[in-house]
Design brief:
Blueprint (H helix, E strand, L loop, with lengths): L1 H33 L2 E3 L1 E17 L2 E5 L4 E6 L6 E2 L4 E5 L6 H22 L2 H25 L8 H28 L7 H27 L5 H27 L6 H19 L2 E3 L4 E6 L6 E2 L4 E6 L4 E8 L11 E6 L2 E13 L4 E3 L2 E10 L11 E18 L4 E3 L2 E8 L2 E12 L3 E7 L6 E3 L18
Antiparallel strand pairs: 1-21, 2-11, 2-16, 3-10, 4-6, 4-9, 5-8, 6-7, 8-10, 11-15, 12-13, 12-16, 13-15, 14-15, 16-20, 17-18, 18-19, 19-20
Helix pairs in contact: 2-7, 3-6, 4-5
Length: about 475
């Protein structure tokens, strides 16, 4: 009985071993049949950096009213193409502030003054006359100053003055004798009054001549010399200024006077422009708010204008990829709003400073569409692929087959029905395949696309899927 028991045990163990072996073989065959492979091939690779961004116009502006008033005319509508300086809308001039109304008069006066200045010869003639007058004044002041080194008058003038004084004194003596002869007559007598008047006049003449003789025979004092020198220097400065002004007018109006009038014209025109809205650049009207009769205030939105001739997309590129992006690289773009169509572009600007967002450093790259049509509009979301590198005739592996083991990139090659690990080093990478630049992988090797995650199968056998 004991022998039979051991027999049964041996039979059961044998049956279990056979079942396990059968199960394992079946499972291994199933695993092998599940491996998906592709041959390692040579080909071309386009390395791209992908990102998303929003379409914007190269130039965009929101135009606002700058004053109060009532809208009189609106000359455009959304979609209209306008040129820089085109008048888009105006206010009723009777509804605007007084300073805007008066600016029209200031503008006309300044324009007329500028025209007169540029065409009239009066300013030059006046400048020439001013030089003549200043020269005359300087010559006189110089003569007076130089005279301080001599007597105030010539010798002949002094001798003549002395002679006049002698005659005047004789006339005083004669007049006194006549007065003495009649001085006892009653007051009010005509003869007495006349004699006194003659005596008084003679004495006053003597006093004047004495003072004159004393002045001309003397020398100027320090104060008088300083006064005459200062007067001469002022006259010299006035003469130089007159000459400079004439020189400025030699070839036309004084540039400073022209600049002053031009500034007045600019200021008046700027004030007038408050009552109208003009296009600041060539573009398309994308928003139009005002209607005739609307009451507006400063800051009220009037229009939006966009330069749709150049459409740009700003995308954020990781610091890992930014050094591979350069100005001039080709770009492809696609839009969720435009199905089945791909557009082309070019990198026009690469940001030089990164922006940290949630711990990641990104750089702004600007792309310009080169074949945009009317379907592409500002605000649309674009998927952007920048072609950063193109390699030809290189060994390629599918990205889905690449694994990382102990920090080393590897692929698995099917040999004798089993996946075998092969170390590789990658170069350029695209969305689907990568360039193999080093390793033991050979062209034609069957690469496993879905390798197992472990290689320890049941009971120490071949690997199983996990």
């Amino acid at each position: 009985m004991k022998g039979k028991t051991w027999l049964w045990i041996v039979l059961i163990v044998a049956a279990l071993g056979a079942g396990a072996f059968y199960y394992y073989n079946q499972n291994a065959q199933a695993e092998q049949s599940e491996y998906q492979t592709v041959l390692a091939e040579r080909g071309d690779l386009l390395a791209q950096v992908g990102a998303t961004g929003t379409v914007r116009a190269r130039q965009s502006a929101q135009l606002l009213w700058q004053t109060n008033g009532t809208v009189e005319k609106v000359n455009v509508k959304p979609g209209d193409v306008v040129k820089a300086g085109d008048e888009l809308a105006t206010l009723d001039m009777t509804s605007v502030a007084q300073n805007i109304i008066l600016a029209k008069s200031d503008l006309l006066n300044a324009q007329r003054s500028l025209e007169d200045l540029q065409t009239s010869s009066l300013a030059r003639a006046q400048a020439e006359q001013a030089v003549v007058n200043a020269q005359k004044a300087y010559d006189e002041a110089k003569t007076r100053y130089e005279a301080t080194r001599f007597n105030r008058a010539s010798d002949s003038y002094i001798e003549n003055t002395k002679a006049e004084l002698d005659l005047a004194r004789q006339q005083v003596a004669l007049a006194r004798r006549v007065y003495n002869a009649v001085k006892n007559l009653p007051d009010g007598d005509a003869r007495k009054a006349q004699a006194l008047a003659n005596l008084t006049a003679a004495e006053m003449r003597v006093d004047r001549l004495v003072a004159q003789l004393n002045y001309v025979t003397g020398r100027p004092d320090d104060q008088e010399i300083a006064q005459r020198k200062a007067a001469m220097e002022v006259a010299a400065a006035q003469l130089e200024e007159a000459k400079r002004k004439l020189e400025r007018l030699k070839d036309g109006p004084d540039p400073l006077d022209v600049a002053i009038l031009e500034a007045r014209i600019t200021a008046a025109q700027a004030t007038l422009n408050l009552a109208r809205i003009r296009a600041p650049f060539d573009g398309v009207i994308t928003v139009s708010e005002p209607l005739p009769g609307d009451q507006v205030t400063p800051g009220t939105v009037a229009f939006r204008i966009d330069d749709l001739s150049h459409l740009l997309v700003d995308v954020q590129v990781s610091e890992i990829d930014i050094n591979s992006v350069q100005v001039g690289q080709p770009v492809t773009l696609s839009f969720d709003a435009i199905l089945g169509k791909t557009y082309n572009g070019v990198v026009v600007e690469v940001g030089q400073a990164g922006l940290v967002v949630q711990g990641a450093v990104n750089f702004t790259v600007t792309v310009e569409l080169t074949d945009a049509d009317e379907l592409v509009r500002p605000g649309m979301t674009a998927a952007v692929n920048i072609l950063v590198r193109e390699v030809k005739d290189v060994l390629l592996v599918p990205n889905r087959a690449v694994r990382v083991v102990d920090g080393q990139r590897v692929v698995y090659v099917l040999k004798n029905g089993q996946p075998e690990m092969v170390k590789i080093r990658l170069g350029a990478i695209s969305d689907t395949v990568s360039e193999v630049v080093a390793g033991d992988l050979k062209e034609g090797d069957p690469i496993v696309l879905n390798p197992p995650t472990t290689f320890n199968g049941p009971m120490g056998g071949p690997p199983g899927r996990q």
